[in-house]
Design a protein that fits this description.
By secondary structure, the chain is α+β, with helices and mostly antiparallel strands. The protein has helices at 2-16, 40-52, 156-163, 170-187, 307-320, 421-425, 427-439; strands spanning 59-66, 71-77, 83-90, 94-102, 108-112, 120-123, 130-140, 142-151, 192-202, 207-213, 217-225, 229-237, 243-246, 248-250, 253-260, 264-286, 297-298, 327-334, 340-346, 349-357, 362-370, 375-381, 384-391, 394-405, 407-416, 451-457, 463-469, 473-481, 487-494, 499-505, 507-514, 521-531, 534-543. The N and C termini lie far apart (96 Å).
């Protein structure tokens, strides 16, 4: 019976359709309200607190919606005899925002890049008449309001004390700071901290924070979770939201490095698989764009070339550098989470292996193994990874994996039989040393090393070598470790008590110049293992100083 009733109901609907009026095709109209959102609601609590201590009325400079990496900026004309209280306040969806103020000449007058949602700055005379204020969203999305209040200079100490944000939880930050210091020690002295922040994370949704990568530089990111969140998934994303790489595990922490010859606005996506809590970020910068470390993600702006075009571009670049363009050894088809192997035979000497990827492949990682199973060389890169195999010859196996997206790749080879004998005794160290020299552009035109020596290192002994820098020249020193040495200390001292120090994993380098000297500059070069006992290679190259 119910089925019949349903059919009858449908018949009634169909039967009535002919008598129904034609629907209107006019689109519904709406209205647009001009102007910005009201920022007073975001700033009123802190503005009232400042007014109770003698500051003037709050003036909202700008209000805008923003996502990670976005900036909200405004200009404020301030009397030269007055102090300015500047603040940025946000809605609940934003977890971390930074505040900056600049003068007419671009000079930074103040910045608050702490891990919080309430950055505040004080600027007192002398200062320019116009202040340029900018807030940058580091994590989350929502509304951002920037505002200013004037106050008398004699009230500065009182206002500064009242607006100092509360310190983070001491126990938690003690743990974070300990992890930061261990990581900074492992990075070495070539890196500088640019940001320390704490952001909330939740298993239900990823947290996105912005990364600003300057041209010809690298960023190192360490992510340390609180006890409430664990099993982090940390991904590096390009401006289109495509994954460039993922962080590697360091216990419960995660770390990654990204380098680029171009400036880029990237982002970090963090998500725990278990729980919710805080993660602490340590972001460090180094002023170079082609390190020898194979774990680094190399970001190349723009879309990848088709394989044949990528091979041609790589050969053209080699010719510009004065190095052999390389012969096409083989082509490979890379699959995600799979390793492709290729057997090859190498002659005695150093062989350069260029792994070139073609669209849609992004990123490649490679390892070269001897027949006995010893690691000879390793490298990673995008769109090219470069390995140097310095051996006495024989048969080897090349393992290749895509880092981000799979697709086609090719292997180009170039051989050099004239190499120092010490390189053939420590192939892994030799490959690392050659990779560092190539990254610094010191292998141009087939240039040979000025000197090379093999040294045995330990954590309890220094090796000292007396070397010289010729007048009006610079010398680049490179130390590369074998498998048994995990970290190196390289120091150069001269008679003027000037001291240069570099510490880092696998390979380190430093440069000393003798520009004004009338004679050779004597150096005492010290090398020590900071972790492990084994062999290393110390090489150096004489250079003309840059103007």
């Amino acid at each position: 019976m119910r089925r019949w009733l349903t059919l009858i109901g449908l018949g009634l609907i169909v039967g009535c359709g002919g008598a129904r009026a034609e629907p209107s095709l006019a689109a519904p109209s709406g209205s647009i309200t001009p102007g910005e959102p009201d920022g007073q609601a975001l700033i009123q609590d802190d503005a009232a607190k400042a007014r109770s201590r003698g500051a003037g009325p709050a003036e909202v400079l700008k209000v805008e919606a923003a996502t990670p990496g976005d900036r909200v900026s405004g200009t404020w004309v301030v009397p030269k005899d007055a102090c300015a209280l500047l603040l940025a306040r946000v809605t609940d969806g934003i977890d971390d925002v930074d505040l900056f103020v600049y003068g007419d000449d671009g000079r930074v007058l103040g910045s608050d890049e702490g891990p919080d949602r309430r950055p505040t700055l004080l600027v007192c005379p002398p200062h320019p008449e116009r202040l340029f204020v900018s807030a940058r969203v580091a994590s989350g999305h929502g509304l951002v309001a920037i505002a200013g209040q004037l106050f008398a200079p004699e009230l500065e100490a009182k206002l500064r004390a009242s607006l100092t944000p509360e310190a983070p939880q001491s126990t938690l930050w003690t743990r974070f700071e300990a992890a930061f210091e261990d990581h900074r020690s492992a990075l070495g002295s070539g890196w500088q901290d640019v940001r320390r922040a704490a952001v909330p994370v939740d298993v239900s949704t990823p947290t996105v924070t912005a990364l600003e990568l300057a041209a010809d530089s690298c960023l190192d990111v360490l992510v340390v979770p609180s006890e409430e969140a664990s099993h982090l998934d940390v991904a590096l994303l390009d401006p289109e939201g495509q994954t460039l790489g993922r962080a590697t595990s360091r216990g419960s922490a995660r770390s990654l490095q990204v380098c680029s010859p171009h400036a880029a606005e990237l982002s970090l996506e963090i998500r725990p698989h278990v729980g919710r809590g805080l993660v602490a970020l340590l972001i460090s910068r180094a002023a170079h764009s082609e390190p020898a470390d194979p774990d680094v993600v190399r970001y190349a702006a723009g879309q990848p070339l088709e394989l044949e075009a990528a091979i041609a571009a790589r050969r053209a670049q080699s010719r510009r550098l004065g190095t052999a363009p390389g012969e096409h050894l083989t082509s490979l088809t890379l699959k995600l989470k799979h390793s492709v192997s290729h057997e090859l035979k190498l002659a005695p000497g150093c062989t350069r292996l260029d792994l070139v990827v073609g669209a849609p492949t992004r990123g490649v990682r490679a390892w070269l193994w001897s027949e006995a199973g010893a690691l000879i060389a390793e490298a990673g890169g995008d769109p090219v990874a470069q390995l140097f195999a310095c051996t006495r010859g024989g048969r080897f196996r090349l393992d290749v994996e895509p880092q981000v997206r799979p697709g086609p790749a090719a292997v180009l080879t170039a051989h050099d039989a004239k190499v120092p004998p010490a390189m053939l005794t420590e192939p892994l160290a030799a490959g690392r040393l050659m990779g560092e020299l190539a990254a610094h552009g010191l292998l141009r035109g087939g240039r040979q090393l000025a000197g090379l020596m093999r040294v045995d290192l330990s954590e309890t002994e220094l090796t000292r070598h007396e070397l010289y820098v010729p007048p009006e020249r610079c010398v680049e020193f490179v130390a590369a470790a074998s498998a048994a040495v995990l970290e190196l200390d390289l120091t150069a001292n001269d008679a003027r008590d000037e001291r240069a120090v570099q510490r880092g994993p696998r390979v380190v380098s430093l440069r000393r110049c003798n520009i004004a000297g009338r004679g050779p500059l004597a150096l005492s070069v010290e090398l020590r293992s900071a972790s492990g006992r084994g062999a290393a290679l110390l090489g150096w190259q004489v250079l003309s100083p840059s103007p």
